[in-house]
Write a structure and sequence with these properties.
This protein is mainly α and about 120 residues long. It has one domain. It has helices spanning about 5-20, 30, 35-60, 60-65, 70-80, 90-115.
Length: about 120
């Protein structure tokens, strides 16, 4: 079955938004002490990695958009799923405050390019 790249990227943007949602307007300590916030955010990062895997395995997106952090997205997902106890919350915090906003912006640019072509 063919993958709808645009729809998958929209889902990725949605997961970026979800990952950032509960880390806004809260301190690092407040975030890590709230199990609901951590669980929801980590789930969103896992879903983002799953979507990245789908696009990288079943489309030419890796070749077309080599600037996206394909390996990092998939690796973070694998680390979360297979080694949750070893998950470093500071890495998650930095990812959702630094990497995810940049990723979201780039995905939005790509979607805009797709609509003009």
């Amino acid at each position: 079955m063919a993958i709808d790249q645009r729809l998958t990227m929209l889902k990725m943007i949605h997961q970026c938004d979800n990952a950032m949602k509960y880390a806004q307007n809260i301190s690092y300590d407040g975030f890590v002490q709230n199990e609901l916030y951590v669980t929801f955010t980590v789930f969103a990062l896992t879903q983002l990695g799953e979507l990245a895997t789908v696009l990288s395995n079943r489309t030419d997106c890796v070749d077309r958009y080599p600037d996206l952090p394909w390996t990092a997205m998939k690796s973070l997902r694998n680390h979360i799923v297979h080694d949750y106890d070893g998950l470093q919350m500071q890495v998650i915090w930095t990812t959702i405050h630094t990497d995810i906003p940049q990723l979201r912006a780039r995905l939005q640019e790509i979607l805009s390019e797709m609509q003009t072509t």
